[in-house]
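Homework-ish question, so no full write-ups if that breaks the rules, but can someone show me the predicted structure for this set?
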Amino acid sequence: MTVSPESYVALSAVLFFIGVVGVIARRNPLIMLMSIELLFNAANLALVAYARAWVNNTGHIFVFLVITVAAAEAAIGLAIVAMTFRRSAHVDVDEVSALRG
Amino acid sequence: MIAFWILAVVLVASAVFTVTAKKPVYSVVGLLVNFIALAATYLTLQAEFLAVIQIVVYSGAILILFVFVIALLSSGTRPFEVGPDKAPRILIPAVAIALLTLAGLTVTALRTPLTVIQSTSTNGTTGDANAFGSVANFGVALFTTNLLPFEVTAFILMVAVIGVVLIAGDETPGEEGARRRKRRPGVREPIVKDTLVR
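A: Not a homework solution, just the prediction itself:
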């Protein structure tokens, strides 16, 4: 007995939900970045599930591109976090408010 | 069927642990379990190449990057996890917004006409270029139909590398930079904060 694609998409939606809560509720920039990785993975799971449902590997190609962009995003995000911490020793994104008017 | 439910429980539990963990290192461990379980889920969906890529790129590269940044940032005099996390104050609006997102996703997914195609090519042997999800099938699609996006990927990675060097590197090279680096001790003092914020 096979699992229906809807189950995978529902699982993907639940993972996305958890990631959104993490991005909004946590103030630690590193944990926020990790929650963003959770969001990427939830979207990837939905793409792979739909690619399997309609037998079409364009979804796989798209997931490949998303993983590439996620790697670039993680590298740049972590560089920004490191630079911010080096300059002002802040671990709370609410404290980084130099641009507040 | 059983594999899916086991993987689903592991995925959700590790994701919740990642989001709620007190220290970033614990979050990394939760994320590692999440990534490996997701790779196994890809295997159940016949995406063999993506499962391998998930392990290599996410668990191998990105998580190591997180661990190194945590290690570098917390190597000063004070522990990294300082200051209250304001999670309880904004937890309710956060959950409300996330629930709205979940509702939107669910409605969109249910309205998508999903007719599962049962093709004979899904049951081919591994390595057959016609078998759906095999590495050969993925490679042929990547290097013929989608060659341009693949090239753009290389460009994105190059831009990211240059950007990281520009952002994280010391901005003043040469003798001036060396003097500034010497003046900056291991203890982190809020240098920019006083000049910018106040």
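Now go work out the reasoning yourself. Hint: The CA atoms of residues 15 and 80 of chain A lie 26 Å apart.
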